[in-house]
Amino acid sequence: MSIIINKASLEDLETLQSLGKQTFYETFAKDNSEEAMQKYLEESFTTEKIKSELNNPDSQFFIAWEEDHPIGYLKINSGKAQTELQDETSLEIERIYVKSSHHGKKVGQLLYEKALEITGQLGKSSIWLGVWEENLKAINFYKKNGFIEFDKHIFVLGEEKQTDLMMKKLLD
């Protein structure tokens, strides 16, 4: 199986939209109400929102492709595009999502390595992210890759407040 990772542009907007909705749903639907999920998907993946994120020079998207099939994506932010921290020496991984059909096939690792590569190219000294405290698979993935927890923040999905662990990795 050969996987190619390409930087996304405005031409990929619809691909990102459907990939974003599908992977978020697959990841979190079993732990949340259908109503909360639908509301989040409608608000978070509008054409306007993704277009403005794609046009933001401090944000980058990368799509993992298996032949002509998009199977996962990465969103990274620097500078003012970061969701919090806003640390000039740091890069944020806002999203790494992979279709459930491709879990366990190292797609997430490839997307993570792309984020690391960009972190180096931009001369940043650390990389950070937020991950839901119940998403043990993701937490273990990041720990395995050298991340340590440094804080927590609240993420609201529907009416429910959920705790995200904030994790960071310092680069040599």
Automatic annotation (TrEMBL):
Entry keyword set: Acyltransferase, Transferase
An example Pfam family from this entry, by short name, is: Acetyltransf_1
| PROSITE patterns tied to this protein | GNAT (PS51186)
Q: Which Gene3D superfamilies match?
A: 3.40.630.30
Q: Which residues form the N-acetyltransferase domain?
A: 3-172
According to UniProt, the name of this protein is Spermine/spermidine N-acetyltransferase
User: Which species?
Assistant: Chryseobacterium soldanellicola
GO MF terms here are: acyltransferase activity, transferring groups other than amino-acyl groups
The protein's superkingdom reads: Bacteria
